[in-house]
Amino acid sequence: FFKNRFSEFFKKANLFGKIFKSSSDVFRVPVSIDKLWNFDPFLAKNLLENPVFCFPIMTNSLNFAFKNFNSKKNEKKMILIPDLKGPFGKRTCLIRSLRAHFLGEIVCIRGIVVKRGERKIKIKRSVHYSNKSAKFFVKENNEFDEDLTFDLIDEGEGNILDLEYGLSKFINWQSILVEDFPDQNSSSKNPKTIIVVLENDLVDSCKIGDQIELCGIYKPLLQQISSLNFHFFPTIISALSLKNRFNSEEKISNNFDIYMMKNFSSLANSFEKLSSLVSPIILIFI
């Protein structure tokens, strides 16, 4: 049902003219939540409340619809990812306003990048082969994990399965630490932060000090639960789209300003103007 409805939405929305290149082999298509809501409120509601299930279906439907739209034989294969755009309503909140009822849903936050982790490679889907039974086994790895270790799968009776690197899927992976804006922390002494996980084309899309706006899935970090505190766990955000707010702002200079900057030295009183900015004249009235 969801696959058919998403495919129908992409056919009617005519979004393929707004495709922009995100990385060398990944392209993004802006998708407005308002347009999706006007098309089918039930579909939009399920995407916002259950993105773990709906977003992969939405991505597959987008690529399927684009394949039918662009039927050129010699066209290079393109990987499309939906780039979700707001408004997200009550899901747009501060980091300190994130609560338990947002778990598993899409949220939108704004903040400053205060720490950026190293770029790593993560195994998304591992394919294993058994020499004894001549069968393939597939394991999906969707958990948050920084360790680059490949689990050995035992088929039983000590038969270790071999990892097929060519058939397995690897993705780029990175974690960043996002903090609320300083003016939003005025009522709190300790700034609120949260770990955000970036994958695929979103890796290296921001640097420390950038003001960003991102939407993603608010998830529990279940792997850090121990037997002593299994009732409590930290949370992260798995980013679906990210926008640098500084790059999205309007330019404050026009063409005339740029022309004057380039030809400033040709002015007759350029030295006086420049020195007045460095050491303004102080008039003393007696």
UniProtKB/TrEMBL annotation:
List, alphabetically, the InterPro entries matched.
MCM, MCM_OB, NA-bd_OB-fold
Tell me which GO cellular component terms the UniProt record holds. MCM complex; nucleus
- What GO MF terms are annotated? ATP binding; single-stranded DNA binding; single-stranded DNA helicase activity
* GO BP term, example: DNA strand elongation involved in DNA replication
The MCM OB domain sits at 95-220
Q: Name one Pfam family in it.
A: MCM_OB
Q: What is this protein called?
A: MCM OB domain-containing protein
Recorded source organism is: Hemiselmis andersenii
Phylogenetic placement of the source organism = Eukaryota, Cryptophyceae, Cryptomonadales, Hemiselmidaceae, Hemiselmis
